[in-house]
What does this fold into?
Amino acid sequence: MSAVTSPITAPVTTEEKVEHHYLNHSSGFLSWALTLDHKRIGMMYLAGILFAFFLGGVFALAIRFHLWNPNKDPDLALFTNQTYNRIFTLHGAIMVFLFIIPSVPAALGNFLLPIMLGTKDVAFPRLNLSSFYLWVIGFIFFSFTLATSGIDTGWTFYTPYSIETTSSVTPATFGVFILGFSSIFTGLNFIVTINTMRPPGMTWFRMPLFLWAVYATSIIQVLATPVLGITVLLLAMERLIGIGIFDPALNGDPVTFQHFFWFYSHPAVYIMILPAMGIISELMSVHSHKGIFGYRMIAYSSIAIALFGFLVWGHHMFTAGMSDITTIVFSALTFTVSIPSAIKVFNWVGTMYQGTVAINTPMVYALSFLFLFTIGGLTGLFLGALSVDMHLHDTYFVVAHFHYVMMGGTLVAFVGGLFHWWPKMTGKMFNDAAGILSGVIVFIGFNLTFLPQFVLGTRGMPRRYASYVEEFQELHRLSTIGAATLGVGLLVAGIVLLHSLFYGKKAPKNPWGGATLEWECSSPPPHDNFSSPPSVGDPYDFSKIEYDGKSGGYVKK
Amino acid sequence: MTTEAAVHTDNHDHGHHDHPAWLAHHFDDAQQQFDAGKFGMWMFLVTEVLFFSGMFCAYVLFRNRNPEVFEYCSSFLNTKLGAINTGVLLFSSLTMAWAVRAAQLKQHTLLVGMLGATLGCAAVFLGVKAVEYTHKWELGLLPGKLYVAQVENAVHADHHYLRNVLIVPLIYTVIGLLYYLYSIVISSRLHRQIAGPVFVSGVCFFAGVLLGQYLESGDHGDHAAHASHSTSHGDEAGHDGAASSHSGTDVATANAATPPLTLVSDSSRLLNPDVFVSPVEQEIPRSDVNNQGMAGLFFSIYYCMTGVHAVHIIGGMVVIIWLIVKAARHEFHSQYFGPVDNVGLYWHLVDFIWIYLFPLLYLIT
Ligand SMILES: [Cu+2]
It folds into this structure.
């Protein structure tokens, strides 16, 4: 009977009975390995990408500790120059292809999208599972690269060096190719699910903004990733049989490689940041207990970013020898993308205004995002300006800029979202005070790591160098101390979450007072999400939701 | 509580009545399942178009850079074979569309027949393609760095490319034949309907090979003199080919750092301009055309585009066999024919891409 009980009226006493949910629906290794349940697939993704993040993070710390000293004498350096090249390449490649791109859409998106939409599953559950296994195969290819001669091209695989180097570029390109298809199939699945499976009452403009963001992301995944696929395939052919298309020695054109690569990889930046923006829209509204400000503008700006994002790839190549007119057009278009991003930031601030802002772990991360993403976005304008970019291109300024967006933006939002939905996913509450502490340490550590890098960049410190002149040492050391702090902060966050799994209180249905559909099913959700189609209302109407002391969560009036 | 439980039970029963085996549990009805599948397939086709678009871009870039090289090299492609393959694919699109109709009308035998015809056409296409490819490999018309063309002399004739390529299709055909005989022995309609098309498509592949060989040799009839020439100098030619390919790679690596313009005029990279004559009498557009960075680049693009297309044909054959299995089991009906419809869409796209490849590669002379 307890399984049948509608979670909306579920009395607190169900705690004593054995509750039926997706985690105990079936057991055994195969019940996970062959599951078609989007929630379990999402959890498997979560475990996988967190492991990838750990690996990438270890490489990041290795980079920072190597740069503790200027390394004038390579013999005294922590790593050889060759090893250093491999470390920063693997850091970038793992973080981009194995962690950030699948992080929010594939892990949180998989878990949340059908529940937020009010459906039983995504449109193609088998395709969903195969996306996960493609990710695993891609991971294996990268591990192979790691285990053999590594890869030292940078995550961008620029030709002609990537054709000539003896490091394992070929397995890495196959890995990227396979991961690309994993990403395409996830995006395709989400688009079809949102288009064809919305239950009655779930109109486009009743969708939570997280879904709008994931939808926009999926559009980019479907439209941009195939171009990366063919690019790395041609690169692999270049190495295997020497087709020459990207090889100047055979009349090929390395700049064409850059065009192809960035035609994907700039939109990919929005694959990384858009879902994070979706998380922040939810977090801002729910933890301010106030309807989102400018719902439609945020929704439209997600789509606008997705579409504009396809027109600006050339800003990565201002110094690659494009014509003047091309660079001017790309620069102008780049500035236009900042408009929809700024719209979002203003709307988030507007949401908090006169709201009842709760300072808890997810909100601390959300506020941290707001600050860091704004810095990341504004420094992007410097790089989009042609004259300034001539000076800043390939310096630490660029490194700091994209880390502010990718790490300060996406990673921080991802961790915030993880805390926000953790009670829903696992059914356990975490220690909020310790969570806030982790957020504060991450914020301090992050800024300590990357603010000095802006200064380094403007003073001319080139990126990817294994050694530097002595005058940069102080700033580099600050950055390394910051990286260690950041590592500690993330470690605390990880411990808080792990601790909750074993000692956490049972989570109520709606611990934060959210109005979207996922808070209407029990924590963790039952196998089928909803026993009957949920009644769909305004996802940001908090007027009917009030705190219930008995369950420790919020209930509908 | 009671009302809710009642509602739930009602839904539960309802669910069972409404969900036959062919309707996945998470869909409400047949229409939703069909729409989702079809929309998903259209999205997939968009990704396919974008996947090919990278190579079309490369084609445009390099043709625009050296139009005369492209036009000249195009004359090495056998237009007759390309045209036949175009016709074969167009016909297979017809049979595929017919298959969709048969699935809707529950004409199971016709459906198996039409899918089998499509499979056979795909096999003919690949058979012809195998002849085209291997013939070019024998002449040294290889992509990029591997390019060692000595068109007068079949530099790689002793490699038996075609014979090696035929091994896998031969295994496929033999397995198809054995499976067909087995289905007759156990007199199973189901297995016969699956084995038949598989075996026939294997035979179709070899029919395509024969057709291709006949036309490829016919095309070079007016070059019989060259052919005899090549046998008498076979050894020398082989030696030449190896030597020049060797020097070619050396120069390629040595000059990697210098800008491409100097490479174009680098005469040491010419393999053997004197003996380089195209099958149709045509003047060499520039002295350095017989070069890994010129003709070699054209053949890189040719092999990449047609090769990726051929992989799509093979992928299509796999899913068509899957459809034949389902069709032989009589799984399709007016409420459930989405898989046939969607594979049909995919097949039309593969056909459509060839419709572009054929004129862009074969007909620009
Ligand atoms: Cu960009």
Notes: Chain B touches chain A through 52 residues (CB under 8 Å). Residues 1-16, 220-275 of chain B have pLDDT under 50 and may be disordered.
